[in-house]
Design goal:
Radius of gyration: 17 Å
Largest sheet: 7 strands, mixed
Oligomer: single chain
Shape: globular
CATH topology: Rossmann fold
Order of helices and strands: HHEHEHEEHEHHEHHE
Length: about 260
């Protein structure tokens, strides 16, 4: 295989990232518990995954890499048979277990996806919701995911999009003023994502733009909630139309891109 174009010094970058998420796990988990942010986060996950779930049906196995608090396990409850979330932050996994208490179909594993022992050919669907831009050695990651996926399984990812200069400026400012925001994130273009997937023989690659108004609500808990909740509802409602009927001229303004494809 050609040299990994996405490789970094694993080791330092991932340790810094893991330490950060161990430190902010409780605050991070609250994003899926506070109403205004959970509205936007739930919509983002459902928008990304529902078209694939309609094809697969409910009797499926999901592996969610860099799962954080395992929000998909709750938001997709009833649409899968079993869900496995893996994250290298032990504090995040503890938060995930608490967040999904009572869900017998969900299990959580502390570990790095590149070294964890997971059953091969076990996943019908692999999720990477806001995960790839935190990861190093992406070529190695993709090869491991291919081993975990059943033949023809689906892959769904949501990634921050770097095409909007204003959004990129806001992200840069946040790295300066918000100590809970990782400054080791790598933002992709559509072409970079497509090249990565193509080099690993992924099929039926579809990339769409998502999120024009609601992503800020997903990332920042706004107060007071009596005002933030109706604003979040409005932003999600408007995004449902924008995401569905996105004209070409709006695409560069999106916060995220959604990637859907199939494993060999």
């Amino acid at each position: 295989m050609a040299q990994d174009k996405f490789s970094d010094a694993e080791n330092d970058v991932e340790k810094i990232d893991r330490d950060l998420f161990d430190r902010i796990a409780a605050d991070f988990a609250s994003k899926d518990s506070i109403k205004s942010s959970s509205l936007a986060r739930r919509y983002q996950i459902l928008y990304a995954v529902e078209p694939i779930l309609k094809k697969l049906g409910p009797d499926i196995s999901i592996i969610d890499i860099a799962c954080g608090v395992g929000a998909p396990a709750k938001y997709l409850l009833g649409l899968y048979e079993d869900y496995t979330g893996i994250d290298h932050s032990s504090a995040m996994i503890a938060a995930a277990v608490k967040f999904n208490a009572g869900n017998s179909g969900a299990r959580f594993i502390t570990g790095n996806i590149k070294t964890a022992a997971l059953p091969e050919r076990s996943a019908d669907l692999i999720l990477a919701i806001g995960a790839l831009h935190h990861m190093t050695e992406l070529d190695k990651v993709m090869e491991i995911l291919k081993r975990l996926a059943k033949p023809g399984a689906y892959f769904v990812a949501v990634e921050p999009y770097r095409g909007n200069p204003l959004v990129q400026l806001l992200r840069w400012v946040r790295t300066i003023i918000d100590r809970s925001y990782s400054n080791d994130q790598r933002y992709f273009s559509r072409q970079e994502i497509r090249e990565l997937l193509s080099e690993h023989d992924m099929a039926e690659i579809a990339i769409c733009h998502q999120g024009f108004l609601s992503p800020p609500f997903a990332q920042v808990i706004l107060k007071p909630q009596w005002l933030a909740v109706p604003l979040a509802r409005l932003a999600v409602a408007l995004d449902k139309s924008c995401d569905k009927f996105c004209p070409k001229m709006l695409k560069r303004l999106s916060w995220n891109i959604v990637i859907r494809c199939r494993f060999p």
